[in-house]
Amino acid sequence: xKSISAVLLCFVFTICTFTAIAQQSVxxxxxxxxxSFQLSPFGEPYYKVVYKNKIVIDNSRLGISLKGGALRDNxxxxxxxxxxxxxxxxxxxxxxxxxxxxxxxLLIHLQEKSGQRRKMDIVFRVFDDGVxxxxxxxxxxxxxxxxxxxxxxxxxxxxxxxxAFWIPGDYDTNEYRYNKSKLSEVNAYIGGSINEIYxxxxxxxxxxxxxxxxxxxxxxxxxxxxxxxVNYPAMQLEIDKKSFRLxxxxxxxxxxxxxxLIAPCHTPxxxxxxxxxxxxxxxxxxxxNLNEPSKIADPSWIKPCKYVGIWWExxxxxxxxxxxxxxxxxxxxxxxxxxxxxxxxxxxxxxxxFAAKNGFAGVLVEGWNTGWEDWFGKGKxxxxxxxxxxxxxxxxxxxxxxESKGVKIIMHHETSAxxxxxxxxxxxxxxxxxxxxxxxxxxxxxxxxxPRGEHHDGQWMVNHYVRVxxxxxxxxxMLDAHEPVRPTGLHRTYPNWMACEAARGNEFNAWSxxxxxxxETILPFTRLLGGxxxxxxxxxxxxxxxxxxSKKEQVHTTLAKQLALYVTLYSPFQMAADLPQNYEQRxxxxxxxxxxxxxxxxxxYLDAEIGDHLTIARRAKGKKDWFIGSxxxxxxxxxxxxxxxxxxxxxxxxIMYRDADDADWEKNPEAYRIEEKxxxxxxxxxxxxxxxxxxxxxxxxx
Length: 702
Description:
Elements: H1 2-22, E1 24-27, E2 33-39, E3 45-51, E4 54-61, E5 64-66, E6 69-71, E7 75-89, E8 99-112, E9 119-127, E10 130-137, E11 146-152, E12 155-157, E13 163-166, E14 179-182, E15 207-209, E16 212-215, E17 221-227, E18 235-240, E19 245-250, E20 259-262, E21 265-266, E22 269-275, H2 278-283, H3 286-289, E23 305-310, H4 312-315, E24 324-329, E25 335-337, H5 345-358, E26 362-365, H6 395-404, E27 408-414, H7 419-435, E28 440-444, H8 459-474, E29 478-482, E30 497-500, H9 508-511, H10 519-522, H11 559-568, E31 573-575, H12 580-584, H13 587-595, E32 600-609, E33 613-620, E34 626-632, E35 637-642, E36 651-659, E37 672-680, E38 684-689, E39 694-701
Parallel strand pairs: 23-26, 23-31, 26-27, 27-28, 28-29, 29-30
Antiparallel strand pairs: 1-2, 2-3, 3-4, 5-6, 5-11, 7-8, 8-9, 9-10, 10-21, 10-22, 11-20, 12-19, 13-14, 13-16, 15-18, 16-17, 17-22, 18-19, 24-25, 32-33, 33-34, 34-39, 35-38, 36-37, 36-39
């Protein structure tokens, strides 16, 4: 027995020694982040992340299950490669005019020690602000080529019961209010079934959507997400509430499979963003740097812009999307108008006039096309054809009128989630747009996906969204997608993909319990880390009973905060969402919306605490003017803003659009003051923010 024990001890020691020798590690360029990789004695791949000598991700397993066998153990290390990158690139539009991509790469080549001896590579990239990694499958002669992913086993072993900002891991929507809790207290059913619209739950109570943002028990800020989501389902996270180990959870298709791949291929990047301060997450460009460069050779036709639209008036009950009541047909088979249709010639011209007068580039028109009488929640395969207008919407005349005013009409394609129908009709729809001079489309995917059994966040739909981006790019059309999978930095690759919704937007304030005052202080640290959001800010009439006195809903901010959102919620495609008459009643406050830029040379993230407050300053593209947005949650607070980012030796006029002293998001939301002050580099501003309030500042170069 003693000899057998000695042999076993020697065997274990030999394996452990081999494992230690096989361990690979790489440091971030600044040395603050260390990533290590190793194989267990059973050939299981593990990784670990250390930040400033603190473990942030402990030993965590890697691997993928396929039909016919898992790639998660029995590996040997064939070789490894290291590479340094330090480049800069210029985005077509963005939060700054130049982005630095500096990272260290570790490429691990693995092969099964026995059996099919399949190969799998794992690529790690370590930046100063985090880590990205993905699985790669090389082409293997007479081996694995076509395969089906049934599960992914990527783990993130956290070191404690961190504070998390999360929404449920729903397969079909991201339109939830954010929860703040310890990881051990996450319960996805707290938020009810799929928002206020759908009534079907498809998620685990312990699963959260990504991006998942946390503040660790040691005060470090973490975000777990993914980059470059292409040809693969979105990743969610299943939480083990005892060990605080997170495991990847993929969105399945109608057959319960996760992905269908053909080697050579790779997964999206799994990302771990790390920051000493909350603002470090906002300043990170790791997600963008992990995406491929632009595929559009000449992007000169892509123009960030502000727009108005026939949209909010329908949400608050002034009129309707549909032209007639369902089934209300004349004897000659023509529909009987309901008298409430908003997308009519006269109303559209009114919006065009308003846009032209105030310098807005576009007018979004929803409800222009036939089909709205019977579209919602019916699961119909064919509702819209995207080329047939209602009788009171004269496409040719309105196009002529808009052109005469220097304004573009923005197309709207609501698919009612019948994506097979949209796929069949896209070519005709985009040809129709080009014929009438439309160069921007807002798509929508409200409802459960057709083909039945597919999900908004599954591989089939992920590929559809990319096809739309590619096809609109070929037609020189800019894209704004609503109800899609949340963005993962693909606007670098397809810069015509200007914005997405993919979160709970301002519209929820019009007909639901709304967005709590902390909502906009969480979004930049979660959903917006993947890309711009079409949040539709700028509501001045905070109580939404303008056309229906019985309505109790309201926007959960002050008017001044609505102005600040143009800076704090980044998008190159920003809507002035309220009605023209509401802006005309407050031209002094509306001036900020007219002035604020949508494309930037510099962005500074001055101060923040997730869910509490946020202050951002940005310099307009090609100009010396700076714009500042500062917002708070339901707590009033005073913020001190040091203007040390202004150009030295230059004088500025700071125009401050702030909450009035008695403002309150609930009791007195529309009270504001406008003040002016001469400032220079190093000047300090002290601003009082009301409960649910904010302040917008234009530092105008003199």
